[in-house]
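G., the chain you wanted modeled:
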Amino acid sequence: MNELKKSIHDNANGLDYTLVNDHYLPNLTAAAPAEHPTGRWGRLHKTYLKEQHPIRYNQLLLSGELSGYLAKLDKQAEEQLALTVQQMQEAEGVTEALKAADQLEWVCRMNSICNRAEEIIKTELIFV
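Predicted structure as tokens:
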């Protein structure tokens, strides 16, 4: 009987193949995905994608784009949060003067502003 070669190269597609149980399988390696730091907003969106949009999640994961996508979204959410908090502070008159005059009132108002701003971020960027 004719012996099969242990490995072959296909010039048509440039791939190498290895013999495994009478079948030639391509020698494929996945590129190591670039790791990007993911913060709070990226983790929230990742969970949302897993639970509500598993197909989109798997597409991003298998293409190696998930980490970069989540890092970009996280950065965008942080910037939007800072801008929203600043705008709400100005609109509601929460200033350093109020902080110096009545710290407890300032803390109450800032907590309210931060909570509302976070809800806006969740609604507009994270859970969409």
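The longest helix spans residues 66-92.

Shout if anything looks off.
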